[in-house]
Structure formats: structure tokens, C-alpha cells
Amino acid sequence: MTKEFKAGDKVEWNTSQGKTQGTVQKKQTTATHIKGHQVTASADDPQYIVKSDKSGAKAAHKPDALKKRS
């Protein structure tokens, strides 16, 4: 079962520096670019645009990479 998130949800994910926390900005269902990287999202394989609490940077993550915070 695919995880579902909505804009404003507080989430965390793993990075090479450890866990990072942020906020879901939106569900991405079309291809786009973020920081020069291709995001290959689609309606069948969506990704979520999240904004890091620490750096303010935006990134795209697959649903399984995110965990909702309490």
C-alpha cells in the first residue's frame, strides 16, 4: 500500500547526514526539475515535494522514503 501525504504534513526522511525533518509542499504527479535534477513523477508513481526545516531547500521524495511525524 502506498503512503499518502498532504500539503502541510510534517515528515522525516533519511539522508547521508542522518534523519532530516520537513514539511510536505505538494504531491507531484508530473515530471519536473528541482535543483537541476529530473524528477520523474507521474500519476501512477507520484513523488512529494518537501521543504527541509533546517535548510529550507526543496527536494522530491517517493512516498516510501517519508515517515509522518507525530
From TrEMBL:
<feature type="compositionally biased region" description="Basic and acidic residues">
    <location>
        <begin position="1"/>
        <end position="12"/>
    </location>
</feature>
<feature type="compositionally biased region" description="Low complexity">
    <location>
        <begin position="17"/>
        <end position="30"/>
    </location>
</feature>
<feature type="compositionally biased region" description="Basic and acidic residues">
    <location>
        <begin position="51"/>
        <end position="70"/>
    </location>
</feature>
<dbReference type="InterPro" id="IPR021331">
    <property type="entry name" value="Hva1_TUDOR"/>
</dbReference>
<feature type="domain" description="Hypervirulence associated protein TUDOR">
    <location>
        <begin position="8"/>
        <end position="66"/>
    </location>
</feature>
<feature type="region of interest" description="Disordered">
    <location>
        <begin position="1"/>
        <end position="70"/>
    </location>
</feature>
<protein>
    <recommendedName>
        <fullName>Hypervirulence associated protein TUDOR domain-containing protein</fullName>
    </recommendedName>
</protein>
<dbReference type="Pfam" id="PF11160">
    <property type="entry name" value="Hva1_TUDOR"/>
</dbReference>
